[in-house]
């Protein structure tokens, strides 16, 4: 009996000890949870830079390539046969219209001219003599008419002789630069043979074919930017002519550009890139292109509101290089995340590093910023 009581007491003591241990463990666990709750870390802010849209001109550009051409290209061919006696101008020489380039031997032409002058003088004397006799009634009308015809024919023969002599003097038909000399001194040339090539190079021309659906606002007098490999700075051109018709084969319109001022190293035949404005919109919202995110054909950006990121869907317009036109989705005064937006989600806390807000003076200047545009 005594042993049974002892055993029962031991069991009670064991259960009491186990209860105390479990209670202690429970308190310890609850204490750890409480400690973890009190030590919860706050949301980490994402560092970003902000900017605001500028107001400016958004433009659509048509970009193409072409070659520079002279405003006139004259190929000078011989109009008579003869031997090249004297070459007066060389390739690279600037010449004026009517300036002498080449002399051919002209002995035969001079003799024929002298003969024609003598024949004309003789025919004129006979015509005058018979005219006096006709007034006196001592010569028949037939004889007078024959003398008159001979006089007129002699005048024509003289003019033909003068013309033949002029063909031995090769002159520049236009003001420009000699770009090609085909004839050599002492060489015998024949009628129709190429002798010189003279180009009018001021102004230079560029002819481009613009698709009819891109012609937009292209008009005579419009400025155009051109780039030539041999020159660092772009050249300034002007729209000189816009064809009034559409080429039915290509669906394009011919536009002729003129370049009045250019460095000496620019020459006809140079390859050039042309950037021509075909459309533009004033008072457009312009943003740095890096601020805009494209996903599956849609465009988004983040704006800052109460130090948090707000994702907005936008519609963009013309794009060129570092600037993009925003048509809808934001207002002019909103602060747009321009750096750090790739790591953002909607509602993230923001740490603003550099808010690029324009001063009143900058805001005033931003009404005419660098143009944004679209290339084709």
Task: Based on the model shown, name its key terms.
Elongation Factor Tu (Ef-tu), domain 3, 14-stranded mixed sheet, Helix Hairpins, alpha+beta, conserved putative lor/sdh protein from methanococcus maripaludis s2 fold, 21 strands
Describe the structure.
The structure is a single chain. By secondary structure, this protein is an alpha+beta fold. Among the domains are: 48-62 and 281-374, conserved putative lor/sdh protein from methanococcus maripaludis s2 fold; 64-71 and 200-278, Elongation Factor Tu (Ef-tu), domain 3; 106-167, Helix hairpin bin (Helix Hairpins, Orthogonal Bundle). Helix content is 26%, strand content 41%. The protein has 4 helices and 21 strands. The chain has helices at 2-38, 107-136, 141-166, 360-365, and strands at 46-51, 54-67, 69-77, 82-87, 94-95, 100-104, 169-171, 176-181, 188-189, 194-211, 223-228, 235-242, 252-259, 271-288, 293-295, 298-305, 308-320, 323-328, 336-339, 350-356, 372-374. The strands form 3 sheets. Strands 2, 3, 5, 8, 10, 11, 12, 13, 14, 15, 16, 17, 18 and 21 form a 14-stranded mixed β-sheet that branches. Strand 15 and strand 16 (298-305) form a beta hairpin. Helix 2 packs antiparallel against helix 3. The longest helix is centred in the first third of the chain and has 37 residues, at 2-38. The protein is elongated. Residues 1-8, 13-18, 20-37 and 357-370 have low confidence and may be disordered.
Summarize this entry quickly.
This protein is an alpha+beta fold and 376 residues long. It contains 4 helices and 21 strands. A hairpin with a 2-residue loop joins strand 17 (308-320) and strand 18 (323-328).
